[in-house]
Amino acid sequence: MSELTSFELEGSLNGQREVLTLILTHLLRNPDEALTKALEERLAPSNQQEDPGAVPQAAFAVEAARAREIKRMVDDAKARVRSGE
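Now predict its structure.
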């Protein structure tokens, strides 16, 4: 398997994000409290470490990027639901 270029990787991630947003849009049109709760839980920062210094900074950067992406997809899906898309 060959390595993906940064453009191919970005395109792949964008395609996956679009599919997930469409699925999420459909799910939000048919509200499900469990889904909403699960998404909200993933948006909240989780810091269950007794010693915050024990976790490398890179881990926090990855966690923050994950939360931003989830929020972006949820916001996009909600906007699509509001617009009737």
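The chain has a mean pLDDT of 78.
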